[in-house]
Design a protein that fits this description.
Elements: H1 13-24, H2 27-39, H3 43-71, H4 75-82, H5 89-121, H6 130-142, H7 144-163, H8 166-193, H9 198-206, H10 215-229, H11 235-240, H12 249-278, H13 286-298, H14 303-337, H15 341-361, E1 370-371, E2 374-375, H16 376-413, H17 424-448
Antiparallel strand pairs: 1-2
Helix pairs in contact: 1-8, 1-12, 1-14, 2-10, 2-12, 2-13, 3-4, 3-10, 3-12, 3-16, 3-17, 4-5, 5-7, 5-14, 5-15, 5-16, 6-13, 7-14, 7-15, 8-12, 8-14, 9-12, 10-16, 10-17, 12-13, 13-14, 14-15, 16-17
The structure holds tryptophan (TRP).
The site of tryptophan has 16 residues, from helix 1, helix 2, helix 10 and helix 14.
């Protein structure tokens, strides 16, 4: 009877929402989203991004959850079970590989959050002007091994949580801390909007110039949407397999998309008014966040304490995301290769660390780690986020729409008829026709350019 008893799972509805939102909300919202928006013309990017998130994000997310819960298996195992003796498991393998790649460069930036906690505690921003804070940031990059050590610490932290398993690990950490991040972002947003010259930043964020929507902007917004929602590589297949049969998958998907998008928007409202006010260029990339935020705290009553809290929360947001990246890899190794969870975690962390060193060291001046004119860091980011995730997402919706099919989809989203799920038909239509087409068009158009 209870043959599934040994499989780990989430304890409650809020558990899956918290874990999926924890995976989604991270550096992608607070660090990568402002970077991409700044580099892609501001408000025009935001519009495309919102369209991606609503029209593609929800259907892809729901497809992943359905595939995961229906198969009760990891990213690779799911396709093996649902489509035996076909090439479909390749989608899962690509996901596992992509998980490695993302974890490798993501842990670099995650490591910075730890460095910045130390900087905040030692009060090293106070009284400094922008030029000095910018100089400190690039000096830090040039201390390559310092980056690597923080990165290693972060990978170990992630490994520690995943080591302990789903229910004790992932769920517990995500539940309490994400709402706190929301609160501090709101406080920061208010401060940012009331700085002198903040209007220009708000207009950059919200006043679209449609002529700026190019093929590159579409590809970047697509990539950012998938990245921010943790889609296209099987995170939500894996998490979906831990979800109880009585949970409502549709409302889970809606909640996660809403929460993730709110945090990204708030991050934009925090960063851009302040950046314009201080004179940080919107195209400043990494510095956009890591330099603007400390400047912002310098202008705030109680900035010292808030700054520490902010970087601690940012580190935790990053952690709940890296947990999901590692979980995909570990679930695969454990279930498909029959290795104990603990050993699988150690292997995956060691391999990530190896790759990650190149990402970190590629950000130094005069680094040898350049591929086709990009730093290894940027190359890993580009290939995983802008190529592998959309490709994976496209294949996932095709799998859902054409292989697994409507009946199974309806069964899962209605919990075998127990829920109404009024949007199921329209969502399935998007999954079957619109989503694959839209992703393919953006993708091919981007490749040609
Ligand atoms: N979504 C996370 C963020 O915004 C990053 C992340 C975690 C991710 N797991 C993922 C991105 C899986 C793509 C795929 O920070």
């Amino acid at each position: 009877m209870e043959e599934k008893k040994k499989r780990d799972g989430f304890g409650s509805k809020i558990g899956i929402i918290a874990a999926a939102a924890g995976s989604a909300i991270g550096l992608g919202n607070i660090y990568r989203f402002p970077c991409e928006l700044g580099n892609n013309g501001g408000a025009a990017f935001l519009l495309v991004y919102l369209a991606v998130v609503i029209f593609l994000g929800i259907p892809v997310m729901l497809s992943e959850l359905v595939i995961g819960r229906h198969s009760q298996s990891n990213a690779v195992g799911a396709f093996k079970k649902l489509a035996p003796k076909t090439a479909w498991p390749i989608v899962g393998y690509m996901g596992v590989l992509c998980g490695f790649l993302i974890f490798a460069f993501y842990s670099t930036v995650s490591g910075w959050t730890l460095e910045y906690i130390v900087k905040a505690v030692s009060n090293s921003f106070s009284g400094k002007d922008l030029a000095t804070i910018e100089q400190d940031f690039s000096d830090f990059h040039n201390m390559g091994w310092r980056n690597v050590i923080w990165q290693a610490v972060f990978i170990l932290l992630t490994g520690f949580v995943v080591f302990k398993g789903v229910q004790n690990g992932i769920e517990k950490y995500a539940k309490i801390l994400m709402p706190l991040l929301l609160v501090i972002l709101i406080v920061l947003g208010v401060r940012s909007m009331t700085l002198p010259g903040a209007k220009a930043g708000l207009s950059f964020l919200f006043n679209p110039d449609f002529s700026k929507i190019t093929g590159k902007v579409l590809v970047s917004a697509l990539g950012q949407g998938f990245f921010s929602l943790s889609l296209g590589m099987g995170v939500l297949i894996t998490y979906g397999s831990y979800v109880k049969k009585s949970d409502n998958l549709t409302s889970t998907a809606f909640s996660v998309v809403l929460a993730d998008t709110m945090i990204a928007l708030l991050a934009g409202i925090v960063i851009f008014p302040a950046a314009f006010s201080f004179g940080v260029r919107p195209t400043a990339g990494m510095g956009l966040v890591f330099n603007t935020i400390p400047m912002l705290f310098n202008q705030m009553a109680g900035g010292y304490v808030f700054c520490i809290i902010f970087f601690v929360l940012l580190a935790i947001a990053a952690l709940t995301s890296t947990i999901s990246l590692l979980e995909v890899v570990v679930a695969y190794i454990t279930e498909q290769l029959h290795v104990k969870r603990q050993l699988a975690t150690v292997i995956a962390c060691a391999a990530t660390m190896f790759l990650g060193v190149f990402a970190s060291l590629s950000l130094m001046e005069n680094t040898p780690f350049i591929i086709a004119g990009k730093t290894v860091f940027d190359a890993m980011d580009f290939i995983s986020s802008n190529v592998m995730l959309p490709l994976g997402g496209m294949l996932i919706v095709i799998f859902m729409g054409w292989r697994l099919g409507k009946t199974k989809f309806f069964e899962e989203v209605t919990n075998e008829g127990k829920l109404k799920s009024p949007l199921k038909a329209i969502i399935f239509f998007i999954i079957r026709y619109l989503a694959p087409l839209a992703i393919a068009v953006v993708f091919i158009n981007g490749l040609i350019k």
